[in-house]
Each structure stands twice: as C-alpha cells, then as structure tokens.
Amino acid sequence: MIHKATFWLLFIKLLQYFLAIDAEIPAVIVFGDSSVDTGNNNELSTILRSNFEPYGRDFFGGEPTGRFSNGRLPSDFISEAFGLKPVVPAFLNPNYNIDDFATGVCFASAGTGYDNATSDTLSVLPLWKEVEYYKQYQQQLRDYVGDERANTILEEAVYLISIGTNDFLENYYARHKRRLEFSIEEYQYFLIGIANDFIKELYNLGARRISLGGLPPMGCLPLERTRNIMFKRQCIEEYNQVAREFNMKLANLVDRLNTELKGIQLLLSNPYDILLEMIQKPSSFGFDNADIGCCATGYLEMGYMCDQLNPFTCKDADKYVFWDAFHPTERTNGLVAAHLMKKWSTKFL
C-alpha cells in the first residue's frame, strides 16, 4: 500500500501533468459556501463552524482550520496544482495578511447561497458581502503591489465559485417562504438570474478566468438519505433531478456569457457525475463506504454534532466518500479537483 504522504505527492504531480502547467496563474480567488470555505465562518457569530476536532485531523499539523472536512478542500488542491500555495487562506482569518492573499484568497462562507434568504438562515456571509470583501482585497492588493501588477493578478487569476446546494436543501425545501413564492423551476431561474449578475459584476471588476461550480447529487448526501429513512435511506431522486436541471441551466448561462462578455473564459465545473460515480461505485475509487460519513455515526452529524468525543468516528477517512453527513473527505475533494482540472487542460487554459 502506498504511504499516505507518497500518495498525495503523486496526486499533485498528476494534477500538474493534466494541466501541463506552462500557463502562469498568479492567484486563486474563491467564492462560495462550505465546499470551499477555508475558515471565514470562524470569525462570524454563527453556529455553522468546524474549527474544532476532529475536523482537520488530516490537515497539515492536524489543525482544525474551519474547513468542513478532515483535510483540504478542492480549492486547496487546485492552488497547489497551479504551483501556488497548498492552501488558500480565508480573508477574515486574522493570522493572514495581504502578503498571503496576493497568491490566493477565499471569501466563501459555509451555509451561504445565491439567495440572501439562504445566508440569513444561519447568519453567515451573503454572496453580496463576499463581493464587498473582494473589493476591499482589490484595494489592499493595489496598495501592496501597485496598480499595474494588481491589474495583472486580478485579470490572470483563476476565480473559483462553488455555491447553490444550500439554496435548495437549507432554504427552498427546508422553509416554506420560497416554496410559496416560487415553483421549483421558477426558483432555479431566480438563482440563475443572481448567478448571471454575480458573474457580470466579477467581470466588471476585472475577472476573466472563472470556474462556475455546478451542484452535486445532493439527494445522495448522507443527511438527505437519512431523512429518507422510510425508503431505506435511498438517494432522494427528486433532489438529484433538481440538481441536474439546475446544472443544465448553469451550462446555458455559461454559453451565453461566453458569447456576451468579451475576453471572458467562463467554464462550468460540474462535480455531479464524478461524485455520483463515487457514490454508486465506491470500490472503483478505493472507498469502502459512500452512504454515511466518517465522523460520528455518519448519518446526520455535521458542525458541532461532529465532535472529538463521539466514539463512532471512523479511524481512516480515506475509506469514506463523505467526512460528515454533508461534506466530502479530503480524498474525495482531491479526486474531484483532479477530475475538474483534467477538463480545464483542454477547455480553460
């Protein structure tokens, strides 16, 4: 069996091979939710945090950084594959400054969504606030490296966006208000309108290389399967169908904006198929379990319910697709990053 450290070294080399990294990427700039939040929620008055053990137990030094995983997130692997730092620092983390942020920065907030009502649910950063912090970052960067260099960094950086799952699972399906206002298709188009405006705002602020993340097979998350206990914890097909439909609408948005916005390189980075394949055929990827998480019982725990005192937490997270009942393990994150970047090598860079 390959030693874990050796595995990750070979893995990063594979990522770099896929990219054939001749293109110089000066920075990775991240927006979104818990799939890419590297610790911003630590600084917010919210219960949606993960800056405690056993979160981060496989991160560098075993540090619980606020990432909702046992280790790194896809954005971290992508940064390292571009020849940048192996982690993307959170903008609100007081231990970092503009020297750290010059090569990558994360504005994501766990629990947020396109819809402001989604972020209000758990008192986290709405998407518009992430953009406001990005504007602050731009000014800090200009002060640090000068206008000319800052403009180059902002234009040539890769922008990663991973958001949307909470809008459906923690807002539309969990609360009555949006369901009274919108049919599910109307709500999808409502979110697409916000995504359209968001991407155009980033473009007007200088972004050109943008990866727009699609939805995962959200009906197969362990927590949603547990809610489907009457049907033997099968995946909720309705939710998966909504994810597929929304991803198709995102793809249409990407096609349209690539035509409308001169010089933009906008790519839909869709994790749906690769994650569903891991869930349906875990052994093909070296996993033993895909229907529950590693942390605690794995059926419903995340955040503070996933703590170091729970005796049921698994010993080896690499055997699990999911870390807690909602979020993937580090190994899954790495495989998803490799899958997406393989496509970038021919379509994005």
TrEMBL record:
The keyword Signal applies. InterPro entries: GDSL, GDSL_lipolytic_enzyme, SGNH_hydro_sf, SGNH_plant_lipase-like. GO terms for molecular function: hydrolase activity, acting on ester bonds. Residues 1-23 form the signal peptide. Keywords: Signal. It holds the Pfam family Lipase_GDSL. PANTHER family: GDSL ESTERASE/LIPASE EXL3, OS06G0636700 PROTEIN. Belongs to the 'GDSL' lipolytic enzyme family. This is GDSL esterase/lipase.
